[in-house]
Design the sequence.
């Protein structure tokens, strides 16, 4: 237990901050994923073949390629791409992107592909009559989406989004390869300097279990909230 | 775009794919037995056996695969006692450590898939078997298991694809699988996009094959 002490003698505070970092990356990635889902869901549902193709390309490629490979692409390619763009504007210095930004962007794009599929499924399972009724009543497109479609969609999407959240949370462990100090990286450092990998990796597993358990509890509450009236 | 690099790295990546496929097939086959075993334990009326099987699947589904690999590869080697037993022959090899981790992981997911498949079997089918005087054992092996396997095909197809992507983590314990070699080429040439296109293309092709194989099996074994 001394190993987990807070302060200079143990790894307690380091692991605590690492856990916060994991939560921060997961939440950011999930939000980035929502932005991507917001862009690509309409593309997948569009009437136009070309837009469909773009939407399908995104979800198929991201869901068919290992997460680690995507992270390597961002880790090695990220600063190169930024520097290329900067060189167009006449800036030739070396630019290094923050590991947090690279990580949450990479995981966010992955999480976005799963969210897109969830939203698409949820919208498609809303009764056609709902759209028609809104139209007949003269509800504006904007109000139709925010007041009629979105609330119904969320109820259907929440159970699946909770799966996406679990996947995203676990995927953040992969960012440790880029050097961002989250649970996995901190355990790696601690295991290296104390030569006690069994303890620290098991403790990391417990932290992840705790996070998944607590988020499940929280999501269940949301589910109850959005299922009012059913 | 460096097309020469793409062409020269293709054979290297393709030969690394063999390791990826080996890891995948070995862990899927052993994992299938684990999954079936734990799914049967989950249906046991004894609360301890039941909870044990639930705990197994909960822990392995609730933690990242990377943690599981690291515990087995870096963690287990720390136990002095293990080093003196014959198990050490297996546990010192990253290849077998990765396979153990993948097997336990896919076993946990497979047990969940099979359990829900067993639950969807209509009781009428089992009752029909019993009323025809077929013994419980034969009802289970000849009726329940085949139906459950058919029911779980779509979900299991997803699991195969997830596991195929999971094998990329073997590269973190020094194995040169498809992702491992891709990372090596990227870090020596600093051309991530070209390598990503080739390696990602190989992964996508495998996803495509698995997807179609499962679709074919679903059609072949459909009830209609």
Sequence:
């Amino acid at each position: 237990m001394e190993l987990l002490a807070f302060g200079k003698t143990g790894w307690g505070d380091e692991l605590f901050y690492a856990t916060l970092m994991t939560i921060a990356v997961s939440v950011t990635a999930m939000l980035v994923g929502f932005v991507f889902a917001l862009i690509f869901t309409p593309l997948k549902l569009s009437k136009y073949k070309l837009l469909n193709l773009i939407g399908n390309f995104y979800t198929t490629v991201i869901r068919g390629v290992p997460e680690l490979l995507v992270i390597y692409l961002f880790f090695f390619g990220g600063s190169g791409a930024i520097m290329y763009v900067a060189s167009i504007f006449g800036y030739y210095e070396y630019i290094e992107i923050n590991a947090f930004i690279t990580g949450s962007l990479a995981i966010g794009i992955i999480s976005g592909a799963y969210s897109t599929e969830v939203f698409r499924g949820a919208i498609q399972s809303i009764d056609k009559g709902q759209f028609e009724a809104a139209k007949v009543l003269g509800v504006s497109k904007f109000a139709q989406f925010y007041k009629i479609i979105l609330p119904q969609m969320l109820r259907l999407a929440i159970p699946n989004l909770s799966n996406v959240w679990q996947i995203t949370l676990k995927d953040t462990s992969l960012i440790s390869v880029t050097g961002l100090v989250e649970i996995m990286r901190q355990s790696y450092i601690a295991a290296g300097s104390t030569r006690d990998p069994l303890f620290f990796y098991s403790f990391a597993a417990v932290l992840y279990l705790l996070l998944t358990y607590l988020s499940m509890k929280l999501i269940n509450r949301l589910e109850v909230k959005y299922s009012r009236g059913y | 775009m460096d097309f020469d690099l793409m062409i020269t790295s293709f054979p290297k990546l393709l030969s690394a794919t063999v390791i990826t496929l080996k890891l995948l097939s070995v862990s899927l086959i052993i994992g299938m037995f684990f999954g079936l075993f734990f799914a049967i334990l989950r249906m046991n009326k004894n609360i301890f056996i039941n909870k044990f099987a639930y705990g197994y699947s909960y822990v392995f589904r609730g933690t990242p695969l990377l943690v599981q690999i690291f515990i087995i590869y870096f963690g287990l080697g720390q136990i002095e006692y293990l080093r003196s037993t014959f198990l050490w022959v297996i546990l010192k090899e990253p290849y077998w450590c990765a396979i153990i981790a993948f097997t336990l992981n896919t076993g946990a997911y497979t047990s969940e898939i099979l359990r829900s498949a067993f639950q969807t079997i209509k009781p009428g089918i089992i009752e029909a078997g019993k009323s025809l005087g077929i013994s419980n054992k034969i009802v289970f092996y000849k009726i329940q298991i085949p139906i459950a396997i058919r029911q779980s095909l779509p979900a299991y197809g997803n699991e195969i694809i997830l596991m195929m992507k999971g094998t990329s983590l073997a590269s973190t314990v020094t194995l040169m699988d498809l992702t491992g070699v891709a990372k090596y080429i990227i870090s020596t040439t600093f051309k991530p996009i070209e390598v990503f296109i080739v390696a990602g293309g190989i992964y996508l092709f495998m996803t495509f094959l698995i997807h179609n194989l499962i679709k074919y099996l679903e059609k072949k074994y459909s009830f209609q």
Remarks:
- The mean pLDDT of chain A is 89.
- Chain A touches chain B at residues 60-61, 63-69, 72-73, 76-77, 80, 166, 170-171, 173-174, 176-177, 184, 187-188, 191, 195-199, 201-202, 204-205, 208-209, 212-213 (CB under 8 Å).
